[in-house]
Design a protein that fits this description.
The complex is a heterodimer. The two termini of chain A are 34 Å apart. Chain A is built from 9 helices and 4 strands. Chain A is of the alpha+beta class. Chain B has a 6-stranded mixed beta sheet, with helices on both faces. In chain B, strands 2-1-4-5 form a 4-stranded antiparallel beta sheet, with helices on one face. Chain B starts with a strand and ends with a strand. The chains are: A alpha+beta, B alpha/beta.
Chain lengths: 298, 220
C-alpha cells in the first residue's frame, strides 16, 4: 500500500513556473543585493582614499642646498605626523611624479633633469577636516609656497558619487525585493488557487483552516527553500566570479571595482536572508490567500 | 431530536435570481429523505447550504441545534465532521490513492493511521474497490469513483449523510449496494438525505420524499 502522501501535491498548474520563477528572482535579488553591497563597499573605500586625503606639493626653495632641503622636508614630515589634524603623512616617491608626467614628455624624458616638487601624501583625520585651511596656513609658514591639491572639490564629487551609489544600490535592492515580494505574493495566490479544489474538499471533510493552512505553508516553504537556495547559491557563485575577475583585471572595464568590489563572508551570509525573507513573507501570506479564496468560493 | 432544520430559506448566486425560495424543512434523527426534482431544480444548491459550502441569502438554518450563520470557522469544521457528503462530481483528490481519499476525513481529524487503517480497508472491500485501493482517481471508472466518494462520506460514521445523485453513474447492481449501505447506516442511526432526479430508485419504506421544483420545496 502506498505510504501516506502529502495532502498538498507537489504541484498542479504553477509547478512548472512557480519554482523556477522563484529561483530566478532569488538569483537576481542575490546579484542585486551582492552588487549593492559591493558597490557600497567600493564607495566607502573610494571615499576613504580620496575624501580624507590630500597631496602636499613642496616647491624647490631657491638657494638652498639639497641637504638643507632634505632636513627641512623631514622636519615638516615630523611636524605633520605630530599634528592633531593629520592621521598620517609620508613622502610620495619621486618616481611616482615622474611616472605621472612621463607619458606627456616622450621617451627622452629624464626625471632627474626636472626640478620636481617634493610631494607628501597626507591623510587627515575625519573629525578635523574643517581645520584643513588652518593646517595649510601652518604648512605655508613652515614651507613657503607649499600647496595642497584641490581635494575639496574631489571630496565633494566623491561624496556626491557615494550618495548616488547608495541611492542606486537602494533602488536596485528595493526593486529586487519588490520583484521577489511580487513573485511570492503571486505564487502564494496561484498555489492557493491551484489547490482550491483540494482545499475545499479538505474543508468539507472536516479539516480545520489551520490544518490546511499549515500544509500549504509547509509545501510553499519547501518550494521557496529549494528554489530560493538554488538561486542564492547561483547568485553567490556569480558574485564570487565577479569579485575574482575584478581582482585579476584591474586594467579592464572593472578598474573602478578593483580592490573595492570585495564581498566579505558576512555579505555572502547576508544573501541567505533572501529565502528567509521570502519564507517569512509567504508564511504570512498563504493563510490570508487561502481564506480569501475560500471566501470567494464558499 | 432535530438534526437539521431550515425556515424560509432563500438563496441566490451573486445578484442573480433566487435559486431557492422559502424552503422550510425539518430532518429528524434517523430520517431518510429523498430530495427529488428535475435537473436545475436547486437540489445541489440546497445540499450546499446544508454542508455549509454556501450561505443562504435569507432565512435560518440550524444544524445540530446550532444557527449556522453564527458559527465561527472552527465550529464549522467540527460540525462538518458529523456530516458525510457525496458530491455529484465525486470530488476525489487526484494525487491521492483510493485508500488515501477514503481515509481523508479521518486524517483531517488528526486520527492516526494505525487506528483507522483496518476499518478503511474493510470499507474499501465492502464497496468493491479492494483491487483498486492503490489506484489514483484519474484511472478509475465513473462507478469506481462514485463508490470511493460514497466510502469517503461514510468512513467517519457521520450523524447525517448527504448524497447528491449517488447512483447516477453506476450500474444497477452497484447502485443497489450503495443504497443498501445508506439504508444500513440509516438503520444504525444516521440521517440520510439523497438528492436524485430518479425517484424510482429503491429506498426504505419509511423514506420521506421532498419535491424540489424551481426552488420551491413540497412534500410528496
Amino acid at each position: 500500500m502506498a505510504e501516506r502522501s502529502r495532502l498538498i501535491p507537489s504541484l498542479a498548474a504553477p509547478r512548472g513556473v512557480l519554482g523556477p520563477a522563484l529561483g530566478l528572482m532569488t538569483f537576481l535579488l542575490a546579484l542585486a543585493l551582492g552588487g549593492a553591497l559591493g558597490l557600497m563597499r567600493w564607495a566607502d573605500l573610494f571615499q576613504e582614499r580620496h575624501l580624507h586625503g590630500m597631496d602636499l606639493y613642496l616647491p624647490l626653495l631657491q638657494g638652498e642646498s639639497e641637504a638643507r632641503m632634505e632636513e627641512r622636508e623631514r622636519a615638516l614630515l615630523d611636524f605633520l605626523n605630530q599634528h592633531e589634524s593629520v592621521a598620517a603623512a609620508r613622502f610620495v616617491p619621486r618616481e611616482t611624479v615622474g611616472d605621472l608626467i612621463a607619458p606627456w614628455l616622450g621617451e627622452d624624458f629624464d626625471a632627474a633633469w626636472l626640478p620636481l616638487p617634493r610631494l607628501i601624501g597626507l591623510r587627515l583625520r575625519v573629525s578635523d577636516l574643517s581645520l584643513r585651511r588652518d593646517l595649510m596656513e601652518e604648512i605655508e609658514g613652515f614651507w613657503p609656497g607649499a600647496s595642497g591639491s584641490a581635494e575639496s572639490e574631489m571630496a565633494k564629487r566623491v561624496g556626491e558619487a557615494r550618495t548616488l551609489v547608495q541611492l542606486l544600490s537602494a533602488i536596485v535592492v528595493a526593486c529586487g525585493l519588490f520583484g521577489m515580494g511580487a513573485i511570492v505574493i503571486l505564487g502564494a495566490r496561484l498555489a492557493c488557487m491551484a489547490h482550491r479544489d483540494t482545499i475545499e474538499i479538505l474543508l468539507y471533510v472536516g479539516a480545520e483552516e489551520g490544518f490546511i493552512a499549515r500544509r500549504l505553508q509547509s509545501w510553499f516553504l519547501l518550494l521557496i527553500f529549494r528554489w530560493g537556495m538554488a538561486g542564492v547559491l547561483l547568485g553567490a557563485a556569480a558574485l564570487f566570479a565577479l569579485d575574482a575577475l575584478a581582482e585579476k583585471a584591474p586594467d579592464a572595464l572593472l578598474l573602478l571595482w578593483a580592490g573595492g568590489f570585495v564581498l566579505e563572508p558576512a555579505d555572502y551570509a547576508a544573501l541567505l536572508l533572501i529565502p528567509v525573507f521570502a519564507a517569512l513573507l509567504t508564511h504570512r501570506l498563504v493563510r490570508y490567500h487561502m481564506r480569501r479564496i475560500l471566501n470567494e468560493s464558499l | 431530536m432535530t438534526i437539521l432544520s431550515c425556515e424560509n430559506v432563500g438563496m441566490r448566486y451573486g445578484h442573480g435570481p433566487e435559486i431557492l425560495r422559502d424552503v422550510s424543512l425539518t430532518i429528524e434523527k434517523n430520517a431518510f429523505c429523498l430530495l427529488v426534482g428535475p435537473s436545475g431544480a436547486g437540489k445541489t444548491s440546497l445540499l450546499s447550504l446544508f454542508f455549509l459550502a454556501r450561505q443562504p441569502s435569507r432565512g435560518l438554518i440550524r444544524i445540530f441545534d446550532q444557527d449556522v450563520s453564527l458559527l465561527p470557522p472552527g465550529e464549522r469544521s467540527l460540525l462538518r465532521r458529523r456530516m458525510g457528503i457525496v458530491f455529484q462530481e465525486f470530488r476525489l483528490i487526484s494525487h491521492m490513492t483510493v485508500y488515501e481519499n477514503i481515509a481523508l476525513p479521518l486524517r483531517a481529524r488528526g486520527e492516526r493511521q494505525s487506528r483507522y487503517r483496518s476499518d478503511v480497508l474493510e470499507l474499501i472491500e465492502w464497496v468493491g474497490l479492494a483491487e483498486r485501493r492503490d489506484a489514483y482517481p484519474p484511472t478509475l471508472s465513473g462507478g469506481e469513483k462514485q463508490r470511493a466518494a460514497v466510502a469517503r462520506a461514510v468512513v467517519g460514521g457521520p450523524d447525517i449523510l448527504m448524497a447528491d445523485e449517488p447512483t447516477g453513474n453506476i450500474d444497477p447492481e452497484n447502485a443497489e449496494r450503495i443504497l443498501h449501505l445508506f439504508a444500513e447506516m440509516n438503520r444504525m442511526g444516521t440521517s440520510v438525505i439523497l438528492a436524485t432526479h430518479t425517484p424510482s430508485l429503491s429506498r426504505p419504506e419509511r423514506a420521506a420524499i421532498l419535491h424540489l421544483e424551481e426552488g420551491r420545496l413540497s412534500y410528496g
